[in-house]
Amino acid sequence: MSLPKAQPVSPAKISGIRQLDGFWLWVPRVATLALTLLAIDYLFNLGLFTFVTEVESQFFYTVVALMLPLVFVLWPASRKASHTRVPWYDIILYLFATSVCGFFVFNAERILDSGWEYEAPEYALVMSFLFWGVVLETARRAGGWPIGIIVGFASLYPIFADVMPGPIQGFPSSPSQTAIYHAMSRESVMGIPLQAFANLVIGFLLFGVALQQTGGGKFFINLAFALLGHVRGGPAKVAVFSSGLMGSMSGSVITNVLTTGVLSIPAMRRVGFGRSYAAGVEACASTGGVLMPPVMGATAFIMASFLNIPYGTIALAAVVPSFLYFMGLFIQIDAYAARHELKGLPADELPSLRQTLKEGWYFIFVFVLLIWLLFFLRREAIAPFYATALLLVINQILPYQRWGWNEVKGFFSSSGKLFAELIAILAGVGLLVGALSVTGMSGTIANDLIFLAGGNTLVLLFMGAATSFILGIGMTVTAAYIFLAVALAPALINGGGMDPLAVHLFILYWGMLSFITPPVALGAFAAASVAGARAMETGFQAMKLGSVIYFIPFLFVLNPALILQGAWDEILVVLSQAIVGVALIAGGMQGYLLGVGNLSLYRVLQWPIRLALIAGGMLLAIPGGGPVPFTNLELSMISAVLLAPALALVWWSNRQEKHAAT
User: Fold this and answer.
1) Under 8 Å between Cβ of 281 and 273
2) 227 and 124, same structural domain?
3) Which domain holds residue 610?
4) Residue ranges, the chain, pLDDT below 50
5) Is the peptide bond before 121 cis (omega within 30 degrees of 0)?
6) Torsion (CA) 70, 76, 77, 82 in degrees, nearest 10
7) Whether 35 contacts 419, CB under 8 Å
8) Cα–Cα distance between 640 and 617 in angstroms, integer?
9) pLDDT for 618-656, tens place per residue?
10) Same domain, 41 and 167
11) Residue 542 forms part of a structural domain
12) Residue 93 sits in the same domain as residue 221
């Protein structure tokens, strides 16, 4: 087997993370090992480290104390600062942050017992201000200037809430009260986002890193090549299949692109796909992977905490939307390959399916175990620890990917970087949530949004989509989701009467779109760097390929049957309409409809035909009733009026072409 190769692109190059050596390499490793042991003790209730795990808030402070100071070691203060060594001022900041966070670990019980959240002694007040400053700077370094500025201004908002204009006016707090609230309440830094991280996310991040470093990415892409590499446009379908599987378990778009893209993109190029198209396929597949169960990234676990429902419920609800997205992407790729007559790779150059399964069967076994623990036993908190342990044990027994000392060190280094980045962002966004909470804005902002929308649910939805997308450009998906879950979701749920789970998934989907939509499109730009393509051109290709994802969130938020909420007969009807609608839209976008033929035989008519298919597919897929001023029957009839002449003309023209050819 001889698959094409590409020069790997380091995630560090994209994230701007500092390359450590010597003593400083061990600091994140030891901190991550300590956090892993404490999390196991806390979640399994072992009672081995009760001095920090017996009181819940003390454990949360310990998580922050171990990870937050690492940001000063891992991320330079600016682009001009050293990316290869830790300067003296960052060493001082690391020690300072450790001391400040350690103060709250040491005093966690006293904060609860003495009610410091309401009235704290002078020295605790000073430490609260220092803690506030540390969180702001770490959020800026790990999340970038946009999140640093947004969180910084938002965290100061309670001090000036009474002098703000009408819609954003709130109850004011003094600087001292604000600092205490941010540092010691369960509604700010130590609020739902950080609690979700400590209770759910740690194990899944460890599992994702273990999966990558035991060869999971290689197995999934070899399996995809063995199954699909020989078919029409095979390498692109391989990218969809492998990135979907890998992304669903790694939870990171960029990591996914850089893991599977280094093989799938050169293979796509070899059979005739252009650079930007190949990179766009990989970006779309990797983005969709994070939206696909069973593991959907950190944001989905935070969603479970916000909604107070099991994570398995969210993962189950995401099955149909993710299926529709990947189906649309798969159909577009097949249509493009058919239209341009792109073949697959020769069978003798593809990996053997038998050999691939022989060497990597345990990845599937672990995958099944994780699903069983999540969906049937409902053990979300401990499921990834069992899955990771089994994965590592089998990996060490089999001779293919055994870890040595270097792999163990690499595992804790990679995990430490993920933990530090996410903790910094979650703590920073916690300040924003705390500011809305202490001023009472979290309760009134929903009413203000409903007023701005004029009470119209569709207008409110479009406002939510636009806001989610804009915030997704400037902030991480997790940060954007948390803000909108507090500010926008109540307006859609209470004012629009929509299903809470559908609303939260709607926000998540629209926040993720920034990964494939210019001008930012981080997923597309990462894929472009692997393919050697132009970044913006790749972004527009990804936007076109992932077009169905722009309206799928509207489908399930308007009718929760698409997230498996409701009677089965309704679910089947709505799902059938959505499948046909997505197939028509995908075919119209690429100019080729499966089972009918080429839509572009007549240049003059091709765009009217394609637009008719896209519009007809949308009308067929959109659920009628509710906020939509048409019934399902009326929408289907309008769709039929658009589709019938277009499909008849395409069928006739392709038949004429076939007769002419013979």
Assistant:
1) yes
2) no
3) 579-662
4) 1, 4-14
5) no
6) 140
7) yes
8) 9
9) 999 988 777 778 888 888 899 999 999 888 888 888 787
10) yes
11) no
12) no
